[in-house]
Amino acid sequence: MKRVILPLMLVLLATGIEAQQSKVADRIIELGQTDNRTMHHLDVVSNRFGGRLVGSNAYDNAAEWCASQFRSWGMEVIMDEAGTVPVGFNRGPWFGRMLSDNGMILHFATPSYTAGTKGVQRGHVLLEPKSKEEFDRMKGALKGAWVLIGGKNEGWPVDWSPKADSARAAVIAYNDSVARINREIMRENMMNRANPPKEFHKLKEEPALFYREMREAGILGVIQSSEVPIRALYDRKNLDRMTFDNLPTVCDIKLDEDQYEIIAEMARERQYFLLEFDIRNHFRPGPVKYYSVIGVIKGKKYPNEYVMMGGHLDAFDVATGGVDDGSGLSPTMEAARLIMAAGGKPDRTILACLWAGEEFGLLGSKHWVETNKEKLPKISNYFNRDGGPTPTMGITVPEAMYEDFEKICKPLNSINPELPFTLKKRTEAPRPRPATAGGSDHAYFAINGVPTLRFDEPDVKGYNFNYGEIWHTERDTYDKSIAEYQEHTSVVTAVIVYGLANLDHLLSREGLYAEEK
Question: Is 50 exceeded by the pLDDT of residue 13?
């Protein structure tokens, strides 16, 4: 009799557990449809705090707020100190205009960790010198000038490091030698006018070739042409060596390319006009610590096994990080809130990760991986979201994971019939495990063999979302997010993460990566 009762009890227990899990999933979906707060989280981090640059007060405030939200939902919080920057940076408002008969308001931006103006500063405009001879001829006029430099803006400021000065000195020496040759060619051409003229040698083009010399001569700043929308990143070449005693002193302005051409033509014609800028770029004494914020839903049965989801909290401050990566952090927060609000008590621990310093080189996620090596074999999957506000509508998994996902994904098509979820079995051969870091926070997990399956996220309703238009530019704002997609993503993520956390085993890694020889 006991032999019959025991299997029956196990079946009843398993059925009860599955029913409980289904009840929580149903409640997650119900809350996600009636009380979805994804866009509220995004509103706060992008509009109340703004651009969340590592080293800024905005980042610190956003991190504290996110931690307070996790705690208010009943979660534990880990503030994972990921590093420091030697000085901090806060961006204030900026304004510029051209003062002339055909004056105009200027459309521009500056990279982070570059100098601002000393109040409102007006100055004349010069084209940058291309040779030592040209510099010597105009060096007296450089004081108080805005200087137009060549090249096209890619987001980075002029590099003022000793290494860059050395490289520019080599170009200057080369151009000087070319200039001497060209003077000789000019004399020969004048002496032999009956013969076809010899062609002049070309000088090497290098934006801000005399940057150090112009700075010492007293220029107000340099201005470079930029495509629109304007991209503005940070001073990656000099940040690590900055102190409060050697901060940059010259403005680095990236100007709308159409306005740049108008101003350059006026400068070439030696017209008289002035440019006026008010740029409030401010620095903080350092070192300034930065933290990843990790919300913890403790597993009741396998507390030392994990399912992870996340996006990065930091964002460039030329805009407000509404997409990069507000579209990742807000569904992560809401998925965690939905699980808690639905009464979820997962078997294994769920980590909701808001990473620091992704834009500075995946600093937060890299630090966590390197300091938690013992946890890596016990992670079922890390879901990273950093590609924009499109909806999670499917996933492709190795064959060894398919049965588990098939069971977990059953409730998903009851969320929104217009956004059906498709589960696919991977048919192509597995790729080798990556050896170098990619472009987002999943990278160091994947390098260490952790599954980092990602969702299929098509713009299925045709909202004409273009990530390239927004990525690292002035247009990365709250209004570029897509509420319907974001809210749907939160619910799907919560259901799948909770389902994985309640499997009676970790996901198999068989067939995840090609076997190493």
Answer: no
